[in-house]
């Protein structure tokens, strides 16, 4: 799995942290050669003009799907003392199953109970992308996002729910179309306090 690096950076309003994925660089040329070899192994004629650009295109596609954007973690002092749930629903995401290299995609619902600081709402989607654009399983991805927010935002509670359809189920194997896998990760009050937990799952649209 990739290592996430936080770089202190002076900021006028936020926490001054720049977030990058510190993973090994992608060798697109080596990926092109490997994809060409894979096509041959699958019995395809790589001299066919229709396949001439396929290795390059596939290498670039995988590089894009495995490279999240860097971003500044913008947080603000909770000057008003807001202590109710903040929830962003239906954040689209996609990731790659580490077992079959096939996509899974869906929506995320991310909420937190603020402590001393609040986070820019768009950054919740950025944190999701940070971990989603990697080789993943949905269970770990859900926990990655929740753990990261708990550690770096230090809220009173965090809740993350992912709903996704997996092409490794819909295109191969059991070939079940339209089924969705739901995973959740909770920390703090959203895990320990039954009323807060119920409110979170009700707003997400799930039963606790």
Give an overview of the whole structure.
- Helix content is 35%, strand content 31%.
- It starts with a strand and ends with a helix.
- Strand 1 (3-8) and strand 2 form a beta hairpin.
- A five-stranded mixed β-sheet has the order 8-5-6-9-10, sandwiched between helices. A three-stranded antiparallel β-sheet has the order 1-2-3, covered by helices on one side.
- It has seven helices and ten strands.
- It is elongated and about 65 Å long.
**CATH first level of the largest domain: which class?**
Alpha Beta
Major beta sheet summary: 5 strands, mixed
Helix segment count?
Answer: 7
Category from helices, strands and their pairing: alpha+beta
- Secondary-structure arrangement, i.e. CATH architecture of the largest domain: 2-Layer Sandwich
Count of spatially separate domains? 2
Instruction: Give the tally of β-strands.
Output: 10
H/E element sequence: EEHHEEEEEHEHEHEHH
Strand content: 25-35%
* Sheet with most strands: strand arrangement: 8-5-6-9-10
- The geometry reads as elongated
Distance between the termini: 30 Å
The residue-averaged pLDDT reads: 90
Share in helix: 25-40%
State the CATH superfamily name of the largest domain: GTP cyclohydrolase I, C-terminal domain/NADPH-dependent 7-cyano-7-deazaguanine reductase, N-terminal domain
């Amino acid at each position: 799995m990739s290592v996430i690096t936080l770089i202190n950076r002076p900021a006028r309003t936020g926490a001054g942290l720049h977030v990058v994925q510190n993973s090994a660089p992608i060798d697109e040329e080596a990926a092109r050669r490997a994809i060409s070899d894979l096509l041959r192994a699958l019995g395809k004629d790589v001299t066919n003009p229709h396949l001439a650009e396929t290795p390059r295109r596939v290498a670039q596609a995988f590089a894009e799907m495995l490279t999240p954007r860097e971003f500044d973690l913008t947080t603000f002092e909770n000057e008003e003392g807001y202590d109710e749930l903040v929830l962003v629903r239906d954040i689209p995401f996609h990731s790659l199953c580490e077992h079959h290299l096939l996509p899974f995609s869906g929506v995320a619902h991310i909420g937190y109970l603020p402590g001393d600081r609040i986070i820019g709402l768009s950054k919740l989607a950025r944190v999701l992308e940070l971990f989603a654009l990697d080789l993943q399983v949905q269970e770990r991805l859900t926990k990655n996002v929740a753990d990261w927010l708990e550690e770096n935002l230090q809220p009173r509670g965090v809740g993350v729910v992912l709903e996704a359809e997996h092409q490794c189920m819909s295109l191969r194997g059991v070939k079940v179309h339209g089924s969705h896998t739901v995973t959740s990760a909770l920390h703090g009050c959203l895990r320990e306090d039954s009323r807060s937990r119920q409110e979170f799952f009700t707003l997400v649209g799930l039963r606790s």
